[in-house]
Amino acid sequence: MKEKSKKKALIFGITGQDGSYLADFLLQKQYDVHGVVRRTSTPPHEQPFNNIAHIRAKITLHNGDLDDETSIRHIMRTVCPDEVYNLAAQSDVHLSFSMPTYTANITGLGVVRILEAIRDTQQEKKKTIRFYQASSSELFGSSPPPQNEKTPFHPRSPYGCAKAFAHYATVNYREAYGIFACCGILFNHESPRRGENFVTRKITKGVARILAGKEKILRLGNLDAKRDWGYAPEYVEAMWLMLQQDKPDDFVIGTGQTHAVKDFLTYAFQHAGIKNWKKYVEIDPANYRPSEVRILVADAKKAQRVLGWKPKKTCANIAKIMLDADCLAIGQGL
Ligand code: F7E
Q1: What is the pLDDT of residues 196-210, one digit of tens each?
Q2: Which of 33, 50, 116, 207 is the most exposed place for a label (fewest CB within 10 A)?
Q3: With a 6 A CB cut-off, is 202 part of the ligand 1 pocket?
């Protein structure tokens, strides 16, 4: 009997936190995993790609860029995947205020380039390609919590605006061309693979450095902002589940619990055995944003009902996992 061929997945953003966890997850499910990496002056085989170093031999990397339609079309035609995950973006909200057109191009228009490539390849190869778009809770911005799939969007940054465009473009390609396209409206999700430009990792790395005597002060911005923080490895399963349904749809993914930045600080410092974090933290106005999202709280009941997805880790658990990883990396276990 002929062996069933492996499902093929193509991941844009495979070197990032979510892309790398999704690659781990899909390899466990026996997928043939392909990823797109951006060209730099260092060739791909010489780049460390820390988040995917442990699986480099098991995946296939392609040079491409969300800014470059030609490379996207070429990769789509060559790989001809069953599933495409777009986890690539200029994803730094603060930076998007300094680079609004770049953010609109990559985070917004980039998804149209992928959707067009999917349309053409589907037609040419007579194959259905399922598409996952990483929408974001930044879409909700100043809409009152809790936020679900029916909550109106009110983005508060160039990043949020670009994600709103990408979200509507994905829904439109589903409605206009029948593409199996899903948007996961994911609330903040963190892990030891998170970039240091995001507040949770900035905090845990900072605490680890303070404990190791390498730094004295952590400089932050708005400590009152509230976020619904979940654990990234759990969130990639939700992405995959969306593409396994009979019908394409959009889902909010989050924990339903919200915490202020200062709560995260408390959890991290407490785990380090420090009660009073105030003497280690300074407010630097440079970290403030021209317009801020005050509070996000997910209402993810639909995901629970339809996908059977439920978050497990709490915010305090996540702070502990991240701090332990950072202390270990710095050579100082807790
Ligand atoms: O900020 C406040 C900051 O940069 C969280 C991205 O993955 O999640 C992320 O966006 C909060 C904000 O994440 C600092 O003002 C205080 O209120 O970790 P963040 P974000 O902006 O929520 C969504 C779902 C995405 O889609 C995005 O791509 O923390 N904050 N002090 C600070 N934030 C940073 N980065 N640095 C500080 O020093």
Answers
A1: 999 999 999 999 999
A2: 50
A3: yes
Asked if residue 287 has its Cβ within 6 Å of ligand 1, the reply is yes
Query: Domains (ranges, CATH) in the chain?
Result: 8-190+229-253 (3.40.50.720), 199-226+258-296+312-329 (3.90.25.10)
Q: Judge whether 102 counts as a catalytic residue.
A: no
- How far does residue 92's CA lie from ligand 1's centre (Å)? 8
Q: Is the pLDDT of residue 42 over 90?
A: no
- pLDDT tens string 278-328: 999 999 999 999 999 999 999 999 999 999 999 999 999 999 999 999 999
Looking at the chain, which runs of residues are DSSP E strands? 8-12, 32-37, 60-63, 83-86, 130-136, 181-186, 189-190, 218-220, 226-227, 230-231, 251-253, 259-260, 281-283
Q: How far apart are the first and last CA of the chain?
A: 54
Order of strands across the sheet that contains 181-186: 60-63, 32-37, 8-12, 83-86, 130-136, 181-186, 251-253
Q: In this predicted model, what pLDDT tens digit does every residue of 61-84 receive, in sequence order?
A: 999 999 999 999 999 999 999 999
235 is catalytic: no
Region label for 310, one of left (φ > 0), alpha (ψ between -120 and 50) or beta (otherwise): beta
Q: Please state the rounded mean pLDDT for residues 23-52.
A: 89
Instruction: Check residue 153 and give left, alpha or beta (phi > 0: left; psi -120 to 50: alpha).
Output: beta
Q: Is 135 a catalytic residue?
A: no
For ligand 1, the distance from its centroid to the CA atom of residue 261, given in whole angstroms, is: 9
- 214 vs 247: CA distance, rounded Å: 52
User: What's the pLDDT at 2?
Assistant: 58
